[in-house]
Amino acid sequence: MRIGATIGMVKAERIALVLAGGGARGAYEAGALSVLVPELDRRGQRPSLFVGTSVGAMNAAYLAAAHDRSADDVAAGMLQRWRDVGSGHIMRPLHQHLILAATRYLGEALSLPGFQFSSLLDPAPAERRLQEWIDLSALHRNITQRSVDTLAVVATAVRSGRTVVFVESAVQPALHRSHVLDYVPATIDHVHLQASAALPVLFPPVRIESPVEAHGWYVDGGTRLNTPIKPALDLGADRIVVIGTDSITPPSDEPGRHEGSPPDLADGALHVLEGALVDPLAEDIITLGNINLFYTDPAGTPAAQQYRQARGKPPYRKVPYIFIAPDRRGAIGEHALEIFRSSNRKLSLRSVRQRLFSQFLGGDSPAHGELLSYLFFDPQYLNELIAMGQHDAHHWLATTGNDPWQIGPLPQLTGPPP
After folding, report:
1. S-S: 318 plus which of 8, 14, 100, 296, CB 3.0-4.6 Å?
2. pTM to 2 decimal places
């Protein structure tokens, strides 16, 4: 058996880890990675190229900063950080900040000097926590020593609406121009991570001063590119691991599926979220599988490759991938709502605050549960998400057997022929 030769060949490949945004759902990513990263390390396929949006950028930065440690230690450290998270570590209690937010909003509406309404929530606790989570000196050292190829953080520029990918790499990659993305070489700092997670309306925009050519105000990268598969490919990934924070399986087609009670604000907000976060991911995974099957097949490549060449882009190539996500839409929201209802049965100051938070999101219907699942940083809920991520990672490894890498489209996305 040529195990040594195989491992040596695989180590030369650039394995990319792509992490999506999703607020509290980052705990799901941590659970999946706690299983997957050690397993890939044993196979000689530990990721060294990290691309993330919002909370995914924070998880990616942690993994890049801790890359010089063993895979098992890194996985344990990530889980411990998420288990230590509580609502007080992420944002100021809602009942405290809403009064201040309402005052600012009224002052701005009355054109009073010095008043500006920028967000409903205050992320200052999360910003302090982030500085404890991510060791920037270790991050830069790992990149300088080339144990980490690249860290890329996605944010959205407020003025232009462009998706900006801040890229730190010891060897500057060829960052070709895109009509939808701006690639900016940078030394990643906490402010880039904060900007990537600044969800509009809920959290205030973040000012980035460095690098100078990209200075300006930024908000959450998930508003335009929540699961950054394209940047990973553009940065030269040979294989891609994608962790999604919701299922991309098609919705039910049973009769009456369009009927329901009159929609409210939460239902509308949920559709906007799914349109921005879930649906593009499904299309990206389908496209990646189709490219692997068709465009890299010699019989199908000439015209496609000529088209790429005419646009000054490299040829299509086969990129094996691993994709881990919940098995059905709404599963995480159901967990959030169930735990939320259970905790609210207890008479305590905490449950009163949670009821206020629930009313802020509009109640406790399934749509409200989906919205809640992004902002509910309850320890029990986070542990449930960790366990769910671990289960789904084990399931992928068990069903794929000796080779966890997928080439074509996922079976549940292809469906029967027309």
Report:
1. 296
2. 0.82
